Structure formats: structure tokens, C-alpha cells
Amino acid sequence: MISAILSAVLASPTPVAVMIHGAGGGGWEYRLWQPVFEKAGYRVVAKNLYPGPEGIANTQLDDYTFQIIRWVNGGRADVVVGASMGGILALLSADALGAKAIILVNSVPPAEIGKEWRDSKSQIQWPDVIEWSKGTLKETRDSMPESSEDMIQYAFKHWRDESGAVMSQLARGVQVPKPKTPVLVMIGGKDTDIPRKVSEELAWAYRADIRRYSDLSHVGPLLGTNAPKVAQDAVSWLASKKIGRTQPR
Length: 249
Fold this sequence. Notes:
This protein has 249 residues and is of the alpha/beta class. It is built from eleven helices and eight strands. It starts with a helix and ends in a 9-residue tail after the last helix.
């Protein structure tokens, strides 16, 4: 009996976690999460998003969504994780990827959520190309108060430019389908980009589970020294929902 169960587990497909980075970032944002998920038996797909065929100034969220769907080469994802801008992209791509769960980390809210936050963001006049790759080390350090110096230096060298059109889309509000699968909203209590109340409103609207981290900033859940613990919380939540290798296939 034991050998039969073991054989079934070993024969089951490896669960897939697609992880989507935020604006100006890259797949490297999950470098502290990936080992935790891999230890739990997941294959992690965390790639860089690239400008669309019309160039970075004309790149739209649809360009990114199409890329994400192609990351799995027609396959499926057990869970889609999205941070900041990646949260909206996770919501836009989850159905096409056949995701069984969605994890949102300090996510940009969809159109119907966070009106005051959106009103403030809509006043920003974004340039065609936001040259975050040319930011200063001090700006990176200020944005990563919980991170090690090695991580700060790594991030400083790897920020990428972003499409102003994409940022304007996010500010105006993006309509996304209401998730049909379990959702976990992870909230940094010191996030000044996506205020805690906005993330809580998002969680309540989706009847999502919440994990709060009172001392973490916008990027802290992914890039702070406690990021592996946050990732483990995500893995434990997935196990509680019987997603991954704990779920019979």
C-alpha cells in the first residue's frame, strides 16, 4: 500500500508556480522565493517581461499578459504569484494559465478598488519611458529598507526601464475578471506605494485570505531579509488549500 502511494506521488506532474514581477523589475525579484518553492516541490517560472513589438513607449499590459501566458508553452500553472504590477497581471492571466490559486503581494488594485489611491496616481504625468535603470543607488537603498546590502547592490544593477503607457493604464484602473480560485493577499504594513488599506479592500472584495507583515515595505516581502519566511507562508497557505503535490491528481 505504501509503495503504491509513493509511486503515485512520484509519478504526479511537478506543480508549477508562475511568479510575475513588478514595474521596472525582473524575474530576479523572486530569487529569495524560488528556493523555498523548489524545496516544496514546485517548478518556478519567473521570467523577465520585455517591451512589446511596438517598442517600450507603446507597450501595454496586454503585451505583458501574452508573454506570461507563453511562459508555460501551452501548459498550466498551479499557482500564479504577482507583486505590485505583477498582481494585476496575475489576475489577467490566471484563467488562461488554469491556475488553481492566486497570490497577490502588495498588488496594484483593479479598477473598482482603491478610488482615493487611484485619484492620486492619475494626477501623475508619466514620460513615455520611465528610466528606472538610471536611478541612483540611494534611491534603491531608500526603497529597500529591509534588504541586505548585497541585495540592494544587485537590485540597483538590475532595475529596468518601464513603459509610461503601462503605468498610466494602472493609474486609470484595469478591469480584471473576479477570481474563481482561492486568493491570498500579502500586505506590507509599511508599504507607501500600495497603502495597507487598499490591499485590505482588495482582499475583502475577493474574500481572500490575508497575511499581514507590519514591518515590511513595498518590496520587503520579496527582497527583504525575511523574504524566505514570507515565501514559506505562501507555500504553507497553498498546502492548506491542498494545492501542489498535496493534491491528488
